[in-house]
Structure formats: structure tokens, C-alpha cells
Amino acid sequence: MSTSESGPRDTAIPPDAPQAKPRVHPVDEVLPAPRLTILGLQHLFIMYAGAIAVPFVVGGALKLSAATIALLVNADLLVAGVATLIQAVGVGKLFGVRLPVVAGATFTVIPPMITIAAKFGGEKGLPYVYGAMLCSGVFGLLIARPFAKVIRFFPPLVAGIVITVIGLSLIGPAAAMIAGHDTEDPHYGQVSHIMVAFAVVFGILILARTLRGFLGQIAPLLAITVGAVLALFTHSWSGSTRTHSWDLSGVGHADWLGLAAPFHFGAPKFDAAAVISMCIVMLVTYTESTADMLAVAEMTGKELTGADITRGLAADGLSALLGGSMNSFPDTLFAENVGLVQMTGVRSRWVTAVTGGFLVVMGVIPKVGAFVAAVPEFVVGGAALVMFATVTAVGIQTLKKAEFQGNHNLLIVATSLGLSLLPAYAMDRFGNSIFFEKFPSWAQIVFGSPITIAVVVAFSLNLVFNHLGGGSTIPVPRSVAASGAVSGAVPGTSPAISPMFAARPAAGSDAATGLALQRSPAASPLP
């Protein structure tokens, strides 16, 4: 019998035939070792300046010795490395969001640490600081799961606002990295430093446009390298002494091995007010990390579940426990590295796991850390500027998924942006926010962070306008409806009526978001 008469031949795969491997999500893809190394270094250079800023600021404010500040820096890098490894790789069902993220010391901890330590005698007050930090870590672990449950109230409207604010609020710190941290310093805004930073920015653009493949992915690292070389030829004048931008003296003085014993400053001590302020810091840290996890999930196309958020937040809580015992600081996810993920398109979490490994090495080998620290800050600032702005662009991209016709969502965005950015634009000469400086210390901790304000305001306004009472709609002018500017008819209604005015959940709500995603492009009122 012919094939045409009997139908197709049996094409079953023999049992011993090799089976096709299931496709691995780009987030879980393990890249070749050389690429992992270089891409991990790129993340390291982007985040390093921010990672060591916290111990320097705290140490300077408490008038600690140079050796003690160096100890804080090493401990900070070590804990940040461990936290980054946990976040990227994960520890069972307990810790780690398993996304390409990098953890580092949160700036939110600076005011309470300085206040607590100063209250109890400067360096002698650090045991109270670390005692409070240990309690905040336990608190963080206890509330990680309940906190993660609010994720369903973060539709694109709220998530987009928060992500946008993250990027916009960091433009100021990027400017400080480039021009200087004291506007009254005679060397502030040095032309050569700004020009090198701009060269890094344009270098990223040119290299990203002209290079392809792997070289295009490491355009920021290549641009930083070029900027570092250019910095060799820049200098600042201090009296009659010319000081080059590169200062490698710290490398010679740094030890090859250096790891302080746990509780270096003494056994932890506990004070109720100190514990409460550190727990507030943990809540602020959780809001920042949640926003960053949402942003990275958006960039990588990885579905983020409540369990993922819980593990990610639990890793932040664990970092506070590690910081409290290892003379370090609680960690949060760094927004500059979030921007790098979007810019390079490299989504593998194993890249940032390598970054975590580098941080651990730098934490136990101070000489390596000293060399990386010698890279001029204005060079890294040029790349950081692009990364921070990229986060803003991702927020705007997320906002495009929200509906703005027939609702109050535009008012929600405007109010949230305006209120949240107030502390970011009211600064003293050193770049510290002073907008809420007359408020109680606990209020300064909460409201001093634009990200926290954005989360609270956007979350609350979305509930009021789009959830409570079923939401409300703004009538579309008759002329607009008649012209067909708002298109997409619902069966059983007039063709001129937009689907958003049919009986359905309020725009901006979770159910409405899901419905909007289910509609075909032709039926969507969005362009």
C-alpha cells in the first residue's frame, strides 16, 4: 500500500533517541565563563561607588579613624557580596529573588545610624546601632511574607510611578559624583572632571550604537575604561600642589587580608527608640527593593510571584542580621544595576552572582578593593548617570501600560511625582535633603526617601480613585467620541463608546489590568 493511501508514516521518536532540552529562560541561562567574568565586572564598577559611600559618610560623621572606616568598608563589601549571591542564586525556598540584581548598603540607614551612635557617645554608641540592626533584621524576616502580599496592588500605574521616581531621584547623586559633593568647595564643578564624565556618556552611546554582540553589551565598561585613561591626564589644583585624579596611594597601604571579627565594637546593646528607628529603615528598604524587583522582572520578562518577592525581601532582612553581627550595614537592591540590565539586555542572574563573588573577594582582600576605589568617581558618575536615567525610561515604559482615558490616573501620576520628588530637589550644600529637617527624626527617615513617598502616595491614590467604591470615570466629550478618537466598541453598546465605559472593573485596578492585557490590539483604546 502506498504512503498516500495509508497516510503518513509513523514518525515516533525511538525511546533511545536524545530528547530536546527544555528552553531555559534567559534569567537562568549560564553564560560562558569569560563573558560572565567581564559582565560581572561591569556590574561591579557601576555599583562600587555607591556601595562604599555609606561607610565613608557614617565614619566621617562619627569622626572614626581611617583604620576603622577601612574596616567598615571591608565589612560592607563582604556583606553586600553575600547578599548579592543570595539574591541571584537563591537559598532553597527561603532567600533570594533569583533575578539579575545587585545588593548594596542602603542610604536610608545613614541618618538613624549617626543619630543613635551620637546619642551614646560616637564610636562607643555603635553597639547600640548594631543591636538595633539585629532587631530590624528579625523584624524584616517576620514581615517579609505579609509585605509581599501587597504586590497585587502594584498595577502598571503604581509600579510605573515608583520606578520613574527611582530614576529621577538618583540624577542628583549622579551629578554629585561628577561635579563634587560640596557646592561651596572651590574645586566643585571642575571642567576637566565634567568633560571626562561627558566623554563616558557619549562613549556609551557611540559604543552601544557601533558595536554588536558581546562588545555592545559591555559598552558601559569599555566607556569607563576609556574615561579612566582620560582621567590620568586631568588634575585639580590645591594651592601649589598638583594632584592627579588617580590616587593609588591607598593600594600600597591596604592589607592583603583583612576581616574584622564579629561584633568588633563590642557586644550588641539595645535601646527601644533605636530599635524602632531601624525597623522603620527596614520598611523603607522593603519598599525600595520591591520597586527594584518589579523593574527587573519587567525588563527580563520573568514572571514575579508573591513567593519570589518574599524570598527577595527575606534576603534584605538577612542582610541586616549579617550587617549587625559583621560590623556592616543592611542592604537593598541598587537601582544603577537595574538600569544596566535594561541597557545591555543581559538578563542572566549568574552575571550578578559573579559580581557578588567579586565583592566577597574585595571584602576579604582590601588591596583589591583599594585599587577599584582608585577609579575617579566622576568617571563612574558618567556611567551612573546613564544607568539612573535608564531606570526612569523603564518607569515611563511601564506607565504606557496603564489607561489614561476616562479616569483620574493622570492626576495620580502628577501628584505622586510632585510630592515624591520634593525631598530630592531641596538639598543643602552637601546634597542632603533638608525639606523635612524640622520634622521628628522618625518622619525624616520615612519621608526623606522619594521612593518611599512615591510608594505610599501612588499606592494610596490608586486605592482611593480606582478601587474604593468601584472607582469613577470622567465623561469623554461628545465631539471626541463622535470623531472616533476613542475607539474600540463593546458588543451591545454604541460603536462610539469606549470599552472603558462598559461595566467592568475600575481602570488601574488589578482586574482592569488583566482585562486590558486580554483584549486584542484592535479593541484597545491605547495607541
From TrEMBL:
<dbReference type="InterPro" id="IPR006043">
    <property type="entry name" value="NCS2"/>
</dbReference>
<feature type="transmembrane region" description="Helical">
    <location>
        <begin position="191"/>
        <end position="208"/>
    </location>
</feature>
<dbReference type="InterPro" id="IPR006042">
    <property type="entry name" value="Xan_ur_permease"/>
</dbReference>
<feature type="transmembrane region" description="Helical">
    <location>
        <begin position="41"/>
        <end position="62"/>
    </location>
</feature>
<feature type="transmembrane region" description="Helical">
    <location>
        <begin position="214"/>
        <end position="233"/>
    </location>
</feature>
<feature type="transmembrane region" description="Helical">
    <location>
        <begin position="95"/>
        <end position="116"/>
    </location>
</feature>
<feature type="transmembrane region" description="Helical">
    <location>
        <begin position="408"/>
        <end position="425"/>
    </location>
</feature>
<feature type="transmembrane region" description="Helical">
    <location>
        <begin position="378"/>
        <end position="396"/>
    </location>
</feature>
<dbReference type="Pfam" id="PF00860">
    <property type="entry name" value="Xan_ur_permease"/>
</dbReference>
<feature type="region of interest" description="Disordered">
    <location>
        <begin position="1"/>
        <end position="24"/>
    </location>
</feature>
<keyword id="KW-1003">Cell membrane</keyword>
<feature type="transmembrane region" description="Helical">
    <location>
        <begin position="153"/>
        <end position="179"/>
    </location>
</feature>
<feature type="transmembrane region" description="Helical">
    <location>
        <begin position="350"/>
        <end position="372"/>
    </location>
</feature>
<keyword id="KW-1133">Transmembrane helix</keyword>
<keyword id="KW-0813">Transport</keyword>
<keyword id="KW-0472">Membrane</keyword>
<protein>
    <submittedName>
        <fullName>Purine permease</fullName>
    </submittedName>
</protein>
<feature type="transmembrane region" description="Helical">
    <location>
        <begin position="128"/>
        <end position="147"/>
    </location>
</feature>
<feature type="transmembrane region" description="Helical">
    <location>
        <begin position="445"/>
        <end position="465"/>
    </location>
</feature>
<comment type="similarity">
    <text>Belongs to the nucleobase:cation symporter-2 (NCS2) (TC 2.A.40) family.</text>
</comment>
<dbReference type="InterPro" id="IPR017588">
    <property type="entry name" value="UacT-like"/>
</dbReference>
<keyword id="KW-0812">Transmembrane</keyword>
